[in-house]
C-alpha cells in the first residue's frame, strides 16, 4: 500500500462491535472510507453493527484482517495483546497494512507482532465516554484523541483522527499509562459523583433529577477545566 492509497479511500475493517468500534467505523465511513467488514459475536454487538454500519459485512476476525487496508482493534485491553500475537502466529498481518488499536493504557508496543510482519502500528484512543449510538458521532466532533505512533507515520494517525471529526493530541509511548490513569479518574469520578447526587435528589422527591443537575454539572466541570485549583464558585 503506497502513500497515495493511504491519503485516499481506505478499506477499513473493525474487530470488535462494542461501543467504540462501530462508531469509529461510521465516522470514517462518513469521511469517504469503505467499511469492508466488522467482527461481531453476540446478538447485541451484531445489532449495533447493523445499526451503525448498515450493509457492512459481518465477518470472522481473520477475514476482516485479510480484506482491510486499515484494521481497527476495538477490543478490551485485556484481550488486545493475545489477539495481535495470535493473528501474527497465523500470518494474518500484511506488509503496509495500517493497524490501529483504541486501548488507552498502551501505545504501539502491544502491536510489535504486527509491526514485525510489516504492518504500520497506530494507537488512537478517543477521550470520550461512548454510548455506541449515533450520539457519539456528534460528541466526537468536540473530542480529542490520544495518538501514539512511530514518528514517520504519526501524521497518518493524526489525519485519521481529523477525518473522524476529532482533534489529535500526541501522547508519547512512555506516557500512555499516565494518560490512561487520567482518563479513568475523570470517567469513574464523574459517574460516581453524578449518580450519588441524582440518588439524593430522588430520595427527597425531586422530579427530573438529571435535568436539575445537568446545568450545575456542566458549569462546574467547565469552571474546573478553566481554573483547576479554584473551587470558590461551588464552595463559597
Overview of the structural elements:
This protein is of the alpha/beta class and 236 residues long. It folds into two domains: 3-171, Rossmann fold; 179-226. The protein has ten helices and seven strands. Strands 2-1-3-4-5-6-7 form a seven-stranded mixed sheet, with helices on both faces. Helix 9 (176-203) packs antiparallel against helix 10 (209-226). 35% of the residues are buried. Mean pLDDT is 90; it is low at 1-7 and 231-236.
Query: What sequence of helices (H) and strands (E) makes up the elements?
Result: HEHEHHEHEHEHEHEHH
CATH superfamily of the largest domain: NAD(P)-binding Rossmann-like Domain
CATH architecture of the largest domain: 3-Layer(aba) Sandwich
Averaged pLDDT, please?
90
Content-based structural category: alpha/beta
Whole-Å distance between the termini?
A: 60 Å
Number of beta-strand segments = 7
Shape: globular
Topology:
Elements (H helix, E strand, L loop, with lengths): L2 H5 L3 E5 L5 H10 L3 E6 L3 H10 L8 H7 L2 E4 L3 H13 L8 E4 L10 H5 L3 E7 L8 H6 L3 E5 L5 H10 L3 E4 L5 H28 L5 H18 L10
Parallel strand pairs: 1-2, 1-3, 3-4, 4-5, 6-7
Antiparallel strand pairs: 5-6
Helix pairs in contact: 9-10
Descriptive keywords:
2 domains; 236 residues; 7-stranded mixed β-sheet; globular; disordered C terminus; 10 helices; 7 strands; Rossmann fold; alpha/beta; 47% helix; OxRdtase/DH_put_Rossmann_dom
